[in-house]
Fold this protein.
Amino acid sequence: MSEPNPAAIASTVVWGAFILAFVFGAVANRTNFCTMGAVSDVVNMGDWNRMRMWLLAIGIAILGTAGLQLAGAIDVAKSIYTTPNFTWLSYILGGFLFGVGMTLGSGCGSKTLIRIGGGNLKSFVVFLMLAISAYMTLKGLFGMFRVAAIDPIAITLQSNQDLPSLLAKGLGADRRTMLSVASGVLGVGLVAFAVARREFRTLDNLMGGIVVGLVIVAGWYLSGHLGHLAEDPNTLEEKFFATNTGRMESMSFVSPLAYLLELLLLWSDKSRVMTFGIASALGVVAGSFAYALATRSFRLESFRDSEDLINHLIGGTLMGFGGILALGCTIGQGLTGVSTLALGSFLALLSIIAGAALTMKIQYWRMMREA
């Protein structure tokens, strides 16, 4: 049996992430897949179609991720989402600030990349502010505050924080059984709710939900199975190749933007390499750009006035800071994290929605007052 080739495995992970994200970017551009748009449609118009698309993606991601676990292909305990360290304040505060920021910035991290691919210059500014703020929260000035004041406020659980582990611990049951039950109830329930309305069942709505959900599952398989070695021949330790966290990853668009900016700034530093997250960020832009060119929808768009610029600057900053606190964005926590059934991911997701909905209500109130 031949020795595993670490360089080849890392290359597979990076190129695989780029291809998956390319598909994500193209499909999301075509179907207008957008978490902020979904929340806005519900809050402002009572229209649930885009929310159902998002819920369909979550349901598919939950079912697919559970299937990979039951098949023994991946172990979500080796991700950042399911640890016993339940940083409840970070989830709530970070998620809420991210929700506020994505509303001011006209979209979350993934939507920012999609809009850049479509020619939106405002989103390029948001990307810069998000990446700088996220990096400062990871390793810079904001990070000192995070580590000293927010991270320590946590609860250490007696098991991992994913629902199957918590249920198994509380009921004295087998985790695999609880995984089957929890993922089946939540996953099938979300899919059934999403497709229940006839007006939702259009090609674009179904394509957006199904493809995005499957991309999350494929990302887990790529980094958690194809990119995993139980024993790296160089270190003789377990290894997940080409991930910034050193653990298995799927799609997320906050810290990868910080690492993308770092790579561009320190390109000559050979210790900085292309990773799953960086490749996925580039893939989303490329996929969206390819779709925009193919459909002749590529349009340059800039700020309408100084207030618009200020909103986007603040929005990007809040998304970078909040996204690092919450361990992810609407994709990183709302899809990837939730697919692991981690309690913190659900809390972060609800906080993101709350922050976005409140900001939308305030914006609507201001608009009506001015009118």
The mean pLDDT is 95. The chain has 15 helices and four strands. Residues 6-370 form one domain. Residues 343-370 form the longest helix (28 residues).
